[in-house]
Amino acid sequence: MQEALDALVQMEEAAWFSLGAYQQHVDAGLEALREIEFGRRIWARDGGLWSSSPTEIAAIEDRLGWLELPTAMRVDVPRLEALFVEVEAAGIERAVLLGMGGSSLAAETMARVLGVSPHHLSLTVLDSTDPAQVRRVAEAGPLDRTLFIVSSKSGTTAEVDALYRYFSGRLADALSTGKQPAPNGDASESQRVADWRRHMVAITDPGTPLEKLARAEGFRAVYLNPRDIGGRFSALSLFGLVPAALVGADLERLLGGAGQMAWQCRSTVPPEDNPGIRLGLAMGECARHGRDKLTLLASPGLEAFGPWVEQLIAESTGKRGAGILPVEGEPLLEPSAYRDDRLFVYLRLTGADNGALDAHAAALAEAGHPVVALRLDDVYDLGAEFYRWEFATAVAGQRLGINPFDQPNVEAAKERAREALERYAEERALPEETPVLQEGDLQIHGPSLDAASMSDYLGGFLSQAGEHDYVAIMAYLDRNETYDGQLQSLRYTIATGTRLATTVGFGPRFLHSTGQLHKGGPDTGLFIQITHTDADDVAVPDAGYTFGILKRAQALGDLLALRDAGRRVVQVHLQGDVATGLEALGEAMGTALSRE
């Protein structure tokens, strides 16, 4: 172990690989990429690397614009920095981003990793339809000092549309009634009515309904992203850079680091020296040979990278029965507590408090688990990592034989949710199921099992797990620290009691991330959906339903889509207080697993 620990701490190169028996598979994959000239062909935008279908090839080739972003986006830096100057002069103090998945995760990552520069805007990402979360953001600061970033590649994202309706209405009401004075303090009543539009910025693709809306209403700014970039590959595009400019990120430095990584991944670099290819081969070849749970370890200060890379990997690779499960934020366990289905990737920030993680990574390598360590000398190496992981995911997709640039199963849950909302419009009620078991304030909806108690049922459900399965906790709840802590505790109970890989996702946020893998990836997941009826709801203006109803419809759509895909899924509905219900669920789970 000491040898591995020394190698990690003294990392002479930017990456350290300890792949053990899996190195032979990576070497074979490297030779295969040489034979097909992967490096040359990806830069030539050759979609034939991932498909033989002419239609699919054309679609892929229209999704490779991310390759050029580190250079292409530098021309936009001055106008993005000018936006901050403009909104600061208008008295704006905070920004709220309304967006889902690829339209929000990179911005949240940059704000949390890079921090907010002095005298710049704070950034809140709202990617939920939970009414408590919506209300909390609305009440967190004065609306007349808030800039709303309406972010959607398609311009038709249902959650973003609902959030825009709500906040534009709240803002217009506040300014028109004079409850919150206009930024300059002396605007007339009619001017204040119009001023709400100056608190709106849109980021979308050209020609979308959102672009048309923003121009018709007169938003402060409309940013049109290059259309040849998929959402999850858009970190270094306007979707990431507009919010980053508002929090005061050094965009030149960020793009400069990404540009250096792109240069190292250029077509003339031998594949064995290409950092994107090296990581992608480790990901793809380990997954092809049973190590398909990519478990991310991150130095203090880099934890926020996890949700971004989770979406990138899950939505890109989870299809056609294949896929890599990204596991981020999982509690550290002893090496013997992991099954032999893991690849560990350690993002190591020089100068951070890495002692515990260094020892953990070294112990994993000593125990025979494949481990990759990537060195970041500064938090601004984040730009380079965005690029490295995008390139690596494209490589991994090629090795898995899938198209990493589509998301064929995402629409399934959306369609089921739309059906539920249509029924609600007709009957003023969502479809309801009779629970198969009720204990206190906990209800179980799922297959009938021979169980007399909640712990019996949960034990029976988890007993279906195979050697290399995983457990996904999907919580349609307010994403706050209290509930997150309880869910992480539940996760730890499951991980230690079963030795299975575990994930936690808040809905509907995860539907734009791991949701694709859940339905299109390998049938190795056991899904525990947690729902709650919101007592204090918030109406969606002009929609005929509330945020609580929308969230419940999305949960129902997800549940039905998982069933349609033949997945093993149960719903636990909390009838009373959420914290109390989660505590009871955790106790029942602990009892169930203590019997194993």
Explained architecture:
It is a single chain. A six-stranded mixed beta sheet has the order 11-12-18-15-13-14, sandwiched between helices. About 3% of the residues have low confidence. The chain is built from 23 helices and 18 strands.
Brief summary:
The protein is α/β, with parallel strands linked by helices and 596 residues long. It is 46% helix and 15% strand. It is globular and about 65 Å long.
Give structural attributes.
six-stranded mixed sheet; five-stranded mixed sheet; 596 residues
SSE topology sketch:
Blueprint: H1 2-9, E1 15-18, H2 23-35, H3 38-43, H4 54-61, H5 69-72, H6 77-89, E2 94-98, H7 105-114, E3 122-126, H8 131-138, E4 146-151, H9 158-177, H10 189-195, E5 200-204, H11 209-217, E6 221-224, H12 238-246, H13 251-264, H14 275-288, E7 293-298, H15 305-317, E8 325-328, E9 342-349, H16 355-366, E10 371-376, H17 382-400, H18 410-427, E11 437-439, E12 442-445, H19 454-462, E13 470-475, H20 481-498, E14 501-506, H21 515-520, E15 525-532, E16 539-540, E17 545-546, H22 547-564, E18 568-574, H23 578-594
Parallel strand pairs: 2-3, 2-4, 4-5, 5-6, 7-8, 7-9, 9-10, 13-14, 13-15, 15-18
Antiparallel strand pairs: 1-10, 11-12, 12-18, 16-17
Helix pairs in contact: 1-16, 2-14, 6-12, 7-12, 7-15, 9-10, 13-17, 14-17, 15-17, 18-22, 19-23, 20-23
- End-to-end separation in angstroms reads 32 Å
Q: How many distinct beta strands? A: 18
Structural class: alpha/beta
Mean pLDDT: 94
Shape: globular
Spatial strand arrangement across the major sheet: 11-12-18-15-13-14
Q: What composes the largest sheet?
A: 6 strands, mixed
Number of helices: 23
Radius of gyration: 24 Å
Q: Which spans have pLDDT < 50 for at least 5 consecutive residues?
A: 179-193
Question: What fraction, in percent, of the residue positions are helical?
Answer: 40-55%
Provide the β-strand percentage band.
15-25%
